[in-house]
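Can anyone check this?
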Amino acid sequence: MRENIEKTIVSTEEIQKTVARLGQELQTDYQGKVPIFICILKGAVLFMTDLIRAYDAPAEIEFMDVSSYGDALESSGEVRILKDLDIPVKGRDLVIVEDIIDTGRTLEALIKLLQTREAASIKICSFLNKPARRLINVHVDYTGVTVPDEFLVGYGLDYKNQYRNLPFVGVLKPEVYEQN
């Protein structure tokens, strides 16, 4: 897999420092509360696992699988809920945990859905932020690293469900995805 990586964007060490920082920020902001951290599958699972360990206070975790990409390189614009929450969120403080905010379409649809369920608050925590691709202006409350408009893989990010397990974030060589 590593031979298909053009360059590293976020090193393993930078990931660890970023996650620790975000965990502390969230812990400070949610002091005295018990938020529900909602991991958006599959990409955010590695980040969520590290983030919840860096958050040293009471919290709950939930999972949603939301898709607008499938195996495509570009968002289809159609957001589908593949796995919904297992608990009601009315009156609860929610932290949506994302691997990357790209166009903003998926996040906008998710926020609207959770608002209809009457959450007390909804905050966004994303490991990566790619503002150059933004089509919908969504507010990201907690951002790990702002990244360039390149095809990224690793630390949860994938290409055709591969590369998620790389311990860093890197740019996938164009010849890998251009030949498919």
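Reply from J.R.: I decoded it. The beta strands are 5-10, 36-41, 60-67, 80-83, 93-101, 121-129, 142-146, 152-153, 169-172.
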